[in-house]
Amino acid sequence: MHDMTLTELARALEAGEFTSRQLTESLLARIERLDGELNSFISVTAEQALAAADAADAARARGEAGPLTGLPLALKDIFCTQDVKTSCGSKMLDNFVAPYDAHVVEKLKAAGTVSLGKTNMDEFAMGSSNENSHYGPVKNPWDLAAVPGGSSGGSAAAVAAGLVPAALGTDTGGSIRQPAAFCGITGLKPTYGRVSRYGMVAYASSLDQGGPMARTAEDCALLLSAIAGHDLRDSTSVARGVPDYRAELGASLSGLKIGLPKEYFGDGLDPAVETAIREAVKVYESLGATVQEVSLPHTHHAIPAYYVIAPAEASSNLSRFDGVRFGHRCDAPTDLEDLYKRSRAEGFGDEVKRRILIGTHTLSEGFFDAYYKKAQQVRRLIRQDFMDAFEEVDVLMGPSTPTPAFDLGANKDPVSMYLQDIYTIAINLAGIPGISVPAGNIDGRPVGLQILGPHFAESQLLNVAHQFQQVTDWHQQRPAFGKENA
Amino acid sequence: MQWETVIGLEVHVQLATRSKIFSGASTAFGAEPNSQACAVDLGLPGVLPVLNESAVAMAVQFGLGIDAEIPEVSIFDRKNYFYPDLPKGYQTSQMYHPIVGPGEVEITLDDGETKRIRVHHAHLEEDAGKSLHEDFHGMTGVDLNRAGTPLLEIVSEPDMRSAKEAAAYLKAIHSIVTYLGISDGNMAEGSMRCDVNVSVRPKGQEAFGTRAEIKNVNSFRFVERAIAFEVERQVELLEDGGKVVQETRLYDPEADETRSMRTKEEANDYRYFPCPDLLPVVLDDAYVDHLRTSLPELPAEKRARFQDKLGLSAYDAGVLSATRAMADFFEGVKDVCGDAKLAANWVQGEFAGRLNKEGLEIASSPVSAAQLGELVARVKDETINGKAAKQVFAALWDGEGDSADAIIEARGLKQVTDTGAIEAMIDQVIADSPVQVAQYRDAEPEKRGKMIGYFVGQVMKASRGTANPQQVNGLLKEKLDALC
Are the Cβ atoms of B276 and A313 closer than 8 angstroms? Predict the structure, then answer.
């Protein structure tokens, strides 16, 4: 069961091959057995999961099952869940139980899904390796010496290891696509505003976007239809109808115009990754697509602009963690300033502190124009690059990451870590959607192909990914981890 | 040396929306601490603000009320600082692109002179909560009921030159916002408060002196007193060769003085930047025009109409248009009785006097405009005379009857205008007063006018005040003169 996709599981549940309770029990047992080593979960909510599974089975018995009824999944621990801890991977929120569900959690519950728990993540979604979690690093199931990627590394590892068929992640600078690539699964960052951010603990509000992580594009389509849509509680969520994304899979790729941004194939790209990506592009040509080189001239400004804007917003978003109303509070503060200083010093990890300090600096008087304003101007240019490119081609393709997953502890320098997101970050600055699909394997570590489209082109991206998965089997490969225990 | 005072005001007006500016929680005053603070107001992780449209409409109405420019786009910014009663660690406000641009307010001084005070801009923002120090030994309690309450901050240019002008400006703002119905203007409950910037400079000098900011003054009187104290302090300081330090001060009404809030000015860096959770507010012409056409008549227009159309004196028009409650009451009385001058006299005289005496607001007056209007109508149509009317008013106030007519009926106060009946009473009085009649007859003709008062009094007494005084006067004069 643990090897099946959401779509296959849905069919099996429908056919009565097993119940949601049997499926849930089996996966809980698998988590119990394997996650000690993997560390992909922060909280496993067995009791709630079994209750939800029973409710789903009952609904099915009444003939009230929808496409997601009884399907198990997991939620990145950044999504607030009523009565379950939402830690955001931080000591600061180790004791935080939200009194409400995030918008996407409400929607998934209403669709009858079964959440098995909350997955591990880089603290407050800041990181590219999942080594910044208060709950310890997550291991990559393909190679336990490697990182799973971040910040949705727990979600990616859990799906790759067959602990859960799908999970939700969030992507601020690549945090869905990069771990999806490292773990050999499919992950979609939707258009900014497509999925409500209500109840998603904010890192950088103008960049954050929740999205699905699963084994196939088809599964991502299924999940996206459930979580997308307008939410009156999020002013930045877009009032626009939600297609049945899965129903729109199947269009031929004949005549599809693919652009290869030359900036995504330059220095720093692992030649083996480049080879895998070019092979994948050839597959598309064989499906009838045409390929041309395009240019995104401001690409090299994306990382600097991102590391001004994201920390600026983060420094403000994280001010509320002050020890006053919720979260970690230091012992016996002597006065107000002591309360603030020690609560924050003890509650936040190094990477979070680093970004708060960067953000505080770039927003401060005298630096605002030079940093923040300039970065916003760069952001407009980057967005314009993409708009110009989409005048010429339908989609852009390139590597999701410059290298396959690196070893735990290998990347000690923050700046070289930031370069991990070199191909993913500009997409968040532009607000466009992007998907990463498995497209190769180098020495036992997966490679991800990234496909980008204009705003609200999710249907097309999912179909382009889906067609690839109809003729390749990268997405069907499974790590050795967990196999012998199956 | 001659000194000139320079004053600028930042007035915070609490908008009368039912819910908060970015959440659905209630804004009602006086609830149990933290009972009106939802997840958004508490700044819980993951929550997001949603702008309350009625706060926007109210801000725009204010802008239109002071003839201000209304920019097409306004933007919310975050003002970042740490304070326990500031839940998110930032206040959402409007720094660079406020919703209301430059406008102006006309003030009227005691001598009837008017002056225009320029408004630099007005912006929307959320209020913070309240820290409570008294009830917690060695600790501080935080009440977030106020957190997220919509405020309109109205920033003037430094155009005021005296404490009186500042108070008049504050009154003018109060009058405009209450006329518009966008705030209850209740200063005691904190619905309106202001920060006052005061500096002095040698008369004739162009450059401003160093200013002190007096925070959170919450009454018209305190504004005047605080400025008066502050001006004296600064002048004395300067004349003694000292220097004014730029600082924040607090006015203490008990001691009637201002005090420094901080010994050294903290270097605040609020790190303003556009709030990424809120979209820019874009107002199209149709929306603004719609609000413009639905604006009520404002104090200045009303005052002009009272003078020009109703023929009231400038003074009466000013008093009767000072608050919307007063103006509405006056117009109610006028509409029922059909006589603006008579209505003005009664509202300012008997009615305002009684309110004052009992310390009541118009809203809690036991006599309604319709009731008073009917009473004034009975004066106008001479059903009762002025003396009886005062009795009727007192009876209405005390709840003796529902209408003037009912009380007139019950007390038999209807004016007697029947000539025969009045003549009969006059004849009786003349017959009963032989001495006075003799005196009258013997008096010089020009002194007789004064002596007639005695007879009038007797006749009025005989009629229990109901005889028409004019008739009594005329008939008496005829009859007495006939005896001469």
Answer: yes
Q: Which amino acid is at B119?
A: V
Residue A73 has which token pair? 């999944």
With contact defined as beta carbons under 8 Å apart, do A363 and A315 qualify? yes
User: Considering only CA atoms, which of A93, A67, A62, A70 is closest in space to residue A80?
Assistant: A93
Catalytic option among A43, A76, A91, A133: A76
Element (H, E) at A307: helix A302-317
| CA–CA gap between residue A172 and residue A156 (Å, rounded) | 16
Task: Work out the angle at residue A292's Cα, subtended by the Cα atoms of residues A287 and A294, and round it to the nearest 5 degrees.
Answer: 135
- Say yes or no: B128 contacts chain A, CB-CB below 8 A: no
Q: For residues B41 and B20, give the distance between their C-alpha atoms in angstroms, rounded to a whole number.
A: 9
- Label residue B210 exposed, middle or buried (CB < 10 Å: 0-12, 13-18, 19+): middle
**CB atoms inside a 10 Å sphere around CB B334:** 24
Count CB neighbours of A186 within 10 A.
Answer: 33
DSSP H or E segment with residue A361:
helix A350-363
| pLDDT by 10s per residue, chain B, length 484 | 899 999 999 999 999 999 999 999 999 888 999 999 999 999 999 999 999 999 999 999 999 999 999 999 999 999 999 999 999 999 999 999 999 999 999 998 878 788 999 999 999 999 999 998 888 888 889 999 999 999 999 999 999 999 999 999 999 999 999 999 999 999 988 899 999 999 999 999 999 999 999 999 999 999 999 999 999 999 999 999 999 998 899 999 999 999 988 654 566 899 999 999 999 999 999 999 999 999 999 998 999 999 999 999 988 998 999 888 999 999 999 999 999 999 999 999 999 999 999 999 898 999 999 999 999 999 998 888 888 899 899 999 998 888 999 998 888 788 777 778 888 888 888 888 888 888 888 888 778 778 888 888 888 888 877 888 888 888 888 888 887 7
**3 state DSSP class of B87:** coil
CA A66 vs. chain centroid, Å, equals 25
Contact present, A433 and A189 (Cβ < 8 Å): yes
Nearest to B9 by CA among B174, B131, B149, B130: B174
Q: Which conformational region is residue A268 in: left (phi greater than 0), alpha (psi within -120 to 50 degrees), or beta?
A: left
Spatial separation of the C-alpha atoms in residues B248 and B464, rounded to whole Å: 66
Q: In what order do the strands lie in the sheet with B192-202?
A: B103-108, B114-126, B150-156, B3-14, B192-202, B212-217, B247-252, B257-260
The answer to whether the beta carbons of residues A194 and A104 sit under 8 Å apart is no
Packed helices B220-239 and B163-180: angle between N→C axes, nearest 10 degrees:
150
Other CB atoms within a 10 A radius of the CB of residue A419 amount to 14
* CA–CA dist A5, A12 (Å, integer): 10
- Smallest Cβ–Cβ distance between B88 and the set A98, A234, A319 belongs to A319
Which helix H or strand E contains B152, and what residues bound it? strand B150-156
Cα–Cα distance for residue pair B189/A391, rounded to 1 Å: 59
Determine contact: A292 vs chain B, CB below 8 A: no
A299 in Cβ contact with A427 (< 8 Å): no
Would residue A316 show up in a list of annotated catalytic residues for this protein? Answer: no
User: What does the block give as tokens for B257?
Assistant: 């003085």
**A422 neighbors A446 (Cβ within 8 angstroms):** no
Residue for token pair 């006939």:
B482
Q: From the candidates B23, B34, B270, B277, which should be mutated to test the interface with A, based on the most A CB atoms within 10 A? A: B277
| A 327-346: CB under 8 A from B | 336, 340
Q: Give the predicted TM-score (pTM) of the model.
A: 0.89
User: Is A76 labeled as catalytic in the residue annotation?
Assistant: yes
Whether B65 and chain A come into contact, CB under 8 Å, resolves to no
B271 vs A234: CB contact, 8 Å cut-off? no
Identify the three-state secondary structure at position B150: strand
| Number of Cβ pairs < 8 A linking chain A and chain B | 103
CA distance A22 to A432: 39
